[in-house]
Design brief:
By secondary structure, this protein is mostly helical. The chain has 17 helices and 3 strands. The chain has helices spanning 2-11, 23-27, 56-65, 70-81, 86-95, 108-117, 122-133, 140-148, 153-161, 168-187, 189-200, 206-209, 213-227, 238-255, 295-307, 313-319, 324-332, and strands spanning 259-260, 274-275, 282-284. β2 (274-275) and β3 (282-284) form a beta hairpin. The chain is elongated and about 95 Å long. The relative contact order is 0.10.
């Protein structure tokens, strides 16, 4: 909801006017073509950063199933939120060609509607759905009833494996949100990335995020390789682990021809990534992207800047909450090149 509100504010587009059948938007869940990325961009879909669909686990489901319509996404939402619904169950059934993606169980409602379609009484279909979605399995008399109505054995076995099933209404709500965000990602890409980095990321690395694409890719691969190595995983910091999703989005936007520019003493926001006023391909990062510079310090810089422009480094330090260490960091990054050291004026 916070992301939706921010997207509405910075684009002027009401989220409830976004169509659910925009084919470019839906295509993000089965390919990366709508991103218009570089040819060597190897992410199979455009789902990086999309709510509920951007995790590695769900992106693997997307790559395996290649959804093409809204109802497919609802089923995938059910598959990803259930327990023993995709792994050790639907995934194996599809890969072994026992059945197709369209026929596997995704949400609770799928079971009841399918069984009613097969001729079971509504109450019996509902009771079976309730037992399965709670992970209680089937009673012998229920198995017999299913067999009598020619329910396939693979379907009965699939029901028996399920430990928890997601309700379809919740899945639909999640998909509505994801499709709306995906629409902005396709049609207002830089606005999308500004919101993603502002609200959805918990870890930043300024030195990497503002570097060329190859540097971002190298850092991302380094962290991922260590996370996947049983001997090295323990040495990966929590910040680095959180950084993976951030760098995935940076790498994707770089491949689309967009970038994160340098910090700017006169333009950077305290906490929001904002669109550059003169460069339609660039985001300006906020001050809090720097390690050790907290929200209060960042706010004090912006508040004082809006009252009156800083005339020196001394002026900046006196009027804001920035300390010597942070001043030195700003100097290293070239943020203070236009400022004198002291509040002094020469008449000669």
């Amino acid at each position: 909801p916070s992301a939706m509100k921010m997207l509405e504010r910075i684009t002027g587009i009401a989220v409830d006017t976004i169509p659910m059948n925009d084919m470019e938007t839906i295509s993000l869940f089965n390919s990366n073509k709508a991103l218009h990325a570089e040819e060597n961009y190897d992410e199979p879909t455009g789902a990086v950063g999309l709510p509920e669909f951007g995790t590695p686990f769900v992106r693997q489901i997307l790559a395996s199933t290649r959804p093409t319509k809204f109802s497919d996404l609802v089923k995938i939402s059910g598959l990803s939120h259930g327990t023993d619904v995709w792994l050790n169950n639907a995934k194996n059934l599809i890969e072994s060609k026992v059945t197709t993606f369209d026929d596997v169980i995704g949400c609770r409602d799928d079971i009841m509607l399918y069984l009613i379609h097969k001729g079971l009484p509504s109450k019996a279909a509902f009771d079976i759905m309730e037992a399965i979605r709670k992970g209680k399995g089937l009673k012998d008399e229920q198995k017999t009833l299913l067999a009598t109505h020619k329910v396939p054995q693979w379907y009965i076995d699939s029901c028996q494996r399920i430990k928890y099933l997601f309700p379809k209404a919740h899945a639909v709500a999640y998909v509505l949100m994801a499709v709306r965000v995906a629409w902005f990602k396709v049609h207002y890409p830089l606005h999308y990335y500004s919101v993603y980095f502002t609200l959805r990321c918990s870890s930043y690395e300024y030195e990497t995020m503002t570097k060329p694409m190859r540097v971002v890719r190298s850092r991302l691969l380094n962290i991922q390789q260590r996370l996947n190595d049983i001997n090295l995983k323990k040495d990966v910091s929590s910040k680095e682990a959180d950084l993976v999703s951030t760098l995935e989005a940076v790498y994707e936007m770089n491949n689309r021809g967009y970038k994160i520019g340098p910090l700017d003493l006169n333009l950077s926001h305290a906490s929001d990534f904002i669109l550059h006023p003169d460069d339609p391909t660039t985001l300006i990062p906020p001050f809090i992207i720097l390690d050790g510079l907290g929200a209060n310090v960042a706010k004090s810089i912006v508040e004082q800047r809006e009252i009156k422009a800083f005339i020196s480094k001394e002026d900046l330090q006196k009027r804001s909450q920035i300390n010597n260490t942070q001043i030195n960091r700003f100097e290293e990054l070239g943020l203070l090149e236009s400022l004198d050291d002291k509040n002094q004026m020469s008449f000669f």
